[in-house]
Amino acid sequence: MGHVGKVLPQQRDVWSNYCQYRICPTQQTFGCFALTELSHGSNTRAMRTTATYDPSTQEFVINSPDFEAAKFWVGNLGKTATHAMVFAQLYTPDQACHGLHSFIVPVRDPKTLLALPGVLVGDMGKKLGQNGLDNGFALFHNVRVPRENLLNKTGDVAPDGRYLTPFKDPNKRFGESLGALSGGRVSITRMALVNLKLALIVAIRFSATRRQFGPKDMEEIPVLEYQLQQWRLIPYLAAAYALEHFSKSIFMNFVEFQLGQIMRDKSERQAEMGREIHAIGCSSKPLGSWTAQRGIQECREACGGHGYLAMNRLGDLRNDNDPNCTYEGDNNVLLQQTSNYLLSWVHAKHRDNVRIRSPLHTVDFLEDSLTILEGKFTARTMEQCMDSAVPLAAYKWLVCFLLEESWRKLEEQRNSGKDDFEARNNSQVYYCRSLAISYIELNCLQKFHDLITNQDTPASLRPVLSKLCALYGLWSLSSHMATLYQGGYLSGKKPAELVQMAIITLCSQLKDDAVSLVDVFAPSDFILNSPIGNADGQLYKNLWATVMQGNQVLERPSWWREFISDKPVVGSLRPKL
Fold first, then answer.
1. Buried b (16+ CB within 10 A) or exposed e, 250-259
2. Is 328 a catalytic residue?
């Protein structure tokens, strides 16, 4: 069913036994996660499906007030799910609404897959990608479920209708109820990375074997030898390695947090870790999915016309990655959660002079913000610039600067009479959004930098990993040059020239290792399923063979007779006006 963190241990045991012996003895029960609705997605508090408790029968009545409250975009619900974890506003007999809670609701008969009484369930239709997943919708008309079907970790209802919860603050209860989504966002970061790596395997192998032009008319060279092709692809290869280590690291952080939850750790550190992981998850998903989105498109274009052939999979990879930017939170909306987290530290510092220190140490450097902001870009040569410590220092300055500027912008808005909602809304572009992106890019770079400086990393791997790390840092930093100049960290044209030269040089130094670097994470040719990306390098042989094996590739169209007959004689047509 997933999201088991929403139930108490004793309830989990009951549901496990119930599923095993009563509703799915032959593994015929399939679940889905029904949160979003037709008219609400990111604004989860505004979901309109209701669950009203009836003490006379000890049941919840699940109801959709109208079609706009239909559960929508629910994976597995279109054709196959038999049960849904439905998020609904919980009402007790005193007409009090206790906010969003989750309920196990049967939607189909497991033996026939027909909709159960009171449930209208169906498939949404074809999407841009991911069509192997049957996203669907559901409307509920007074569907009754037992009281035990409420997943009651954050709140419960007694048989007589009294609402019970261990949380005094409704906001904390709400945050806890949606806390399981943080793990999903971390997973989406890796899902996007998988798509990016597959595209890079295809594009770099293609570029190493595709020959075009050359210094002499009769001597063609691989397109990977061209500076422009290196600059288009190899930074994304560096990003893939950075994201590989980063996503694994934050996943292990999430596992540590989940273990604390299972052990009922109520410490302040556990609570603070939850906030920090939420901030990381809300920005790692945008970082991973947007990097993959841009990288896959670049790979598609770098493979020319052959990259546009569906058989080479780049189109499918691009379309299948695209929803990573949207589900479990629109990227731009999620980034606001991260910037809010960072701004909360500034608020605490100003109000209570607290020391800025977090369990995972992603914000510890902010304690030295004043000293960091006095710093300047110090590299004087291209070789100095090719040390990952250089972009790392620049990123720390950048985050400190954007945090200070975002706080100043918010205060300016509030002082002008704007309420908190409007003040935050007017402080996103160029401020809070950029802050959140810079923060997560810094953390990704920091993890990679720590890896290459770790004594446990094999010495034979450090040279190439160091180049990848430096390239990722400089290439990512290059998108923030205007802000670095605006804040005075950079001055004159020399720093920009050094960064640009270092990026180009690192791409050139890495191009001979590029094929080996993608081979490291490449699956078998059968799994890759891209003729121009096969490991044997037989680009044209593989592509031609696949073309010739196409269905009816040499056959006339079924409508050939209509195409060649009954054509009007040239000049015989006259206008009727």
1. bbebbeebbe
2. yes
